[in-house]
Amino acid sequence: MSVTKTEAEPTKVLEFGLGNGTYCLDIGIIDEIVDAGKLTRIPNSPDHVEGVMDLRGRTTTIVDPKTLFSIDEKGPRERIVVFDDDETDGSGAVGWMVDELFQVRDVAPEDVDQATTVNGEGVNGIVKSENRFLIWVTTDIDEVVDFEAPNLVREKEQADE
Fold first, then answer.
1. Which residues form a coiled coil (predicted)?
2. Rounded to whole angstroms, what are the CA distances from 8 to 33, 124, 138?
3. pTM of the prediction?
4. In the chain, which ranges are E strands?
5. Is 2.40.50.180 the CATH number for 11-160?
6. Which of 123, 138, 125 shows the shortest CA–CA distance to 28?
7. Tens of pLDDT along the chain (161 residues)?
């Protein structure tokens, strides 16, 4: 009897836009997606914190990932991706303000190029798609929020070369 090698299962990811770039996150770390609403600014908060909003009785901190990743392009800022509280290591409810959402799709391990990331911090790899590349942001949200963000636009340009 021969033993067959099992292939790794694909991961479901959410594709979203920030400026002119397309990024993705593991859907398993996302709690919900909501329309962007009115935010309350917090005095003396870090630049990447847009403010807070009340989501069903929970104060949710809204972060601008474009500030974290040094993305200068403007966008419609239509949706907020709210992360599962279990993924934020006790920092409370956190959401990212994104320009737009595209789709949920499966990503097979063989479609992820991990060699193209510069330092690896905050990035799982570059997902090769039919005619474009997606930057797969790490599933460790606290790492992404706390680290000095690399310029992911520069990483994407290097991946395209």
1. none
2. 28, 16, 18
3. 0.75
4. 11-18, 21-26, 30-35, 49-55, 58-63, 79-83, 93-98, 100-107, 112-113, 123-128, 133-137
5. yes
6. 138
7. 444 444 678 999 999 999 999 999 999 999 999 999 889 998 888 888 999 999 988 899 999 999 888 889 998 998 999 998 776 666 678 899 999 999 999 988 888 886 665 555 677 778 887 777 888 887 665 555 543 333 333 333 344 44
